[in-house]
Amino acid sequence: MTPRIRRLLGLFTALVCLFSVAPVVVIVLESFTATQYVVFPPRGLSLQWYVEFLRRPEFVNSAIVSLVVALCSCLIATTLGTMIALALARQSSASGRILQSIFMAPLSLPGIILGLGLLQLFAGWGIPRNVATMIFTHVVITLPFAIRFVSIAVLGIDRDAERAAQSLGADPWMTFRKITVPLIRPGIIASLVFAFILSFDELAASLFISSPAATNLPVRIFVYIEQNYDPLITSVSSILVFAAIVVLIVIERTIGMGRLFGLRTRSV
Amino acid sequence: MLMSTHTDTTDVAGPKRRFGLRIPTTLLLLLPGLAVFSLFFVLPLAILAVNSFHGYSRLSGISPDFTIENYVLALSDRYYIIILTKTFSLALSSAFFTFLVGYPVALYFYSASERQQGWIILLILSPLLVSVIVRTFGWLVILGPNGLVDVVFKAFGLEGGSILYSQTAVVIGLVNVFLPFFVLSVATSLNAIDPAVPLAASSLGASPLRVFASVVFPLSMPGIASGLLIIFSLSSSSFVTPALLGGSKFRVLSTEIYQDALVLQNWPFAASLAIILIFIVLAVLVAQNTFVQHSRYRVVFH
Amino acid sequence: MYTFTGFNRRRVLVYATSLAGALALSGACQAADQVVLAGYGGSIENAMQEKVIPAFEKKTGIKVSYVVGTALSNYSKVVAARNSPEVDVYWSNGLTHVAGKQQNLYEKLDPGIVTNLSDVYDSAKDPDGIGVASYVLATGIEYNTKAYADAGIAAPKSWNDLWNPKLKGKVALYTFNVAYSQDLLVIMTQLAGGTAKDVQPGLDKLKSLKASGNLTTFSSTPAELDNIMVQGQSWVTVNGSARAFILKNQGAPIDFVFPKEGAGFFTNYFDVVKGAPHPKAAQALVDFLISPEAQAAIAESTVTAPINKKTKISDKLAAEVPNGDEIAHMIQIDRGIMNANLDKWASLWNRQIEGN
């Protein structure tokens, strides 16, 4: 990559980042408003809506439910997704390809419909709606991402390394642990990140399978603004943005971003 | 190195042994995923499929008789055909524009320092951190009348106005959310490219453009394909963004499904619409998968 | 009504139990002294959780489990579980009240337990004794006072003021998915001299509002409408009085008028679900919910009119909710006809008003 092209790409990337954060900035600014209603540009400067969030047990509870559900479902989805990706990514048989496509199907099924189906399933079979059922619902929704991200990484593996290891007498499990896992780590991390975020933001299906024991944050926000639209919603939404910034800074200070994603720095 | 990439890819297509694993191992790897998938996806979908072959009356609910009238209505009424067309034109255009916007970002991302990479990820991921409805309200403020876009345009003496409630607005909203999927998807596949490959090509005198066109781009194909696939599928089923930014002028299938499923409680018809949607998307996915498989052969043997 | 029963339930239940493990067990051991109420979020939930439910629990010793949702998502839950209900009391809206009645989903109220029924206004009672209204509000005109003042437009008084030529591109309505637009269609039909049996006159009236260039925006959710009204992107809309007054009370430049031809009569209902797991507790809960004490808390938090004659409300609230005279003058909507025809109306509205 010549320096000129690189500079141009950098400029373009900066503009795209600006485009990405535009709606987020609006929401974050709105959350600091001193008014009782949502308005942009915000009037005055106040942290009252963050205090309000902490004063609402139902929002705090839902945030915890979301956190637990997102953590569990991203771990389960990524584990299952990695196994499926290892089994299927290099399959070229027609059945393997069709199976790969079928695993993608949840992406194109509107969440409302999945929710309605699960609602009938749970109601008809007496399955309780709780945190566990919500976790598995989110696993199904996030599994396609896990499979895709790990598959890309699997497709990129230089198999000479695996073969070399095996020819040197490593058993398959050892080859997998020592050679394959480090090579597909970027895909695994990407899968964890996306599965977590998507689960944290899942509304449509969760609306139908929520219960007093398991009402996640998106459902809480949705049913709240169905009745009232006030800046509490913008502060609740901004909290995750701040949390992500903190996590990022911590990762950068401790283990380093590139190590996490396993992306080597170099120029093309 | 180039040679080894070739043999490597041919091997991918090889039918017998992959990954040093035999068929039973493949099955074992698939089993847990398949179990969860069947229970929480296939079963509810089957229930809805059964629903979709029944009639519905607002006075007596779902009727016990078997009928295909839901499918006949959905596939014969011009109103639904237009909506179906709009849905897929939306899915295609958001996939296309995400590619246009995202690919250069992925290229830059790949060559950026670790620190820059961290911030780029955070920034492009940030829309996903805000609840979907609330994020869309952010866009209403930016794109609406007297919104930021309007004000900036007018400041430059250009024709202002609102671009809300159009396909443009919906595509902007969707590209904004789907961008990180695409960028990370491509970045992951670029990451797998051995740095020696492009270096070798340029040291043999190939121009940067040529290196890109004949080495980097083809090798990033799996990432591009996966990214586009995810975006196409997600756009086809997205609901909140089209509903809020597209308004009434831009109804898509998921808007109809929402109305039928929730407002009218006509689960059978909503289910039939969803099943039509999922089958069309599935057909596209299978076709695309086959195409990518073939195009990979082309890359290898040309 | 057909329901999905194509499986051997017992065998499947065993399977599900082993799969969900202890979690399934937690569902099985339910306390006898409890009742499940499916209601709304936001300020209603706040009032319920902080005032109404603790008072009920203290009085009766029955624990209330509050399922938070929307009228429609909770209705789906009631319909899906009709063979083994989980919810005891469902807080329906006008339409799902009638739809559920029609499909035999609700139980009659027991006058022996729901004794507060005798203090309820007649207009809030159900003619068949199934369920009772939870509060009353009006469907009328909401407008942005600042935008009106800046443009020198007088405050709206009549439904016809939506056609004011100074409002080009400034009128917003809900999509047909939101109840207020379903009601507006009937109101417009009645104003045009038609009846709910044929809503074409109402559709034509709304088409002319669109043709005038005034009506350009359709909002899919109440929050979205709040957003564009407060931001001044639209200046006037048709909305429920409660929502408009909540914004006004928060200090937003918003006001609400009861149009002179009559505002729409809008109610939500408390319905006891047929086959409810805790039928006695359900009736007791409804009785408490329509008591003057609970009604005051609910009305104040929702800015709506209480349905119990003995309820004491603040003067501020009294000024914002429809009073006896206004209620008598309101346009009544035949929800039976609406329920029977809603799919047809939705299709007509989609094709004639929102589409193209």
Largest sheet of chain C: 10 strands, mixed
Q: What percentage of the residues of chain C does DSSP assign to strands (E)?
A: 15-25%
How does the helix and strand content of chain B classify structurally? Answer: mainly alpha
* Proportion of residues in β-strands of chain B: under 5%
What is the N-to-C order of secondary-structure elements of chain C (H for helix, E for strand)? Answer: HHEHEHEHEEHEHHEHEHEEHHHHH
CATH homologous superfamily descriptor of the largest domain in chain C:
Periplasmic binding protein-like II
Secondary-structure class of chain C: alpha/beta
- CATH names the topology of the largest domain in chain C as D-Maltodextrin-Binding Protein, domain 2
Average pLDDT over all residues of chain B: 84
The level of helicity of chain C is: 40-55%
Q: Compute the number of strand runs of chain B.
A: 2
Q: What integer value in Å does the Rg of chain B equal? A: 23 Å
The H/E string of chain B reads: HHEEHHHHHHHHHHHH
Alpha carbon gap, first and last residue of chain C: 36 Å
**In CATH terms, what is the fold-level topology of chain B?**
MetI-like fold
Q: In whole angstroms, how far apart are the ends of chain B?
A: 17 Å
Top-tier CATH class of the largest domain in chain C = Alpha Beta
Number of domains of chain B: 1
Annotation keywords:
heterotrimer; A: 268 residues; mainly alpha; MetI-like fold; 12 helices; globular; C: 356 residues; alpha/beta; D-Maltodextrin-Binding Protein, domain 2; 2 domains; ten-stranded mixed β-sheet; 15 helices; 10 strands; 45% helix; 17% strand; disordered N terminus
Describe this structure in words.
Chain A has helices at 3-31, 48-55, 57-88, 94-103, 111-125, 131-155, 159-167, 172-200, 204-209, 217-225, 232-254, 257-261. With 268 residues, chain A is mainly α. Chain A has a single domain (57-229, 242-261), classed as MetI-like fold (Orthogonal Bundle). Chain B has 302 residues and is mainly α. Chain B has a single domain, classed as MetI-like fold (Orthogonal Bundle). In chain B, strands 1-2 form a two-stranded antiparallel ribbon. In chain B, helix 6 (132-143) runs parallel beside helix 12. Chain B is globular. Mean pLDDT of chain C is 90; it is low at 1-30. Chain C has 15 helices and 10 strands. Chain C is 45% helix and 17% strand. The radius of gyration of chain C is 22 Å and the shape is globular. The longest helix of chain C has 20 residues, at 335-354. Chain C has helices at residues 9-20, 22-28, 42-60, 71-80, 94-102, 145-151, 179-191, 200-211, 222-230, 241-249, 279-289, 292-302, 315-320, 324-329, 335-354; strands spanning 34-39, 63-68, 89-93, 106-107, 132-144, 171-174, 215-219, 236-240, 254-257, 264-273. Chains in contact: A-B, A-C, B-C. At the A-B interface, helix 1, helix 3, helix 4, helix 5 and helix 6 of A face helix 1, helix 2, helix 4, helix 5 and helix 6 of B.
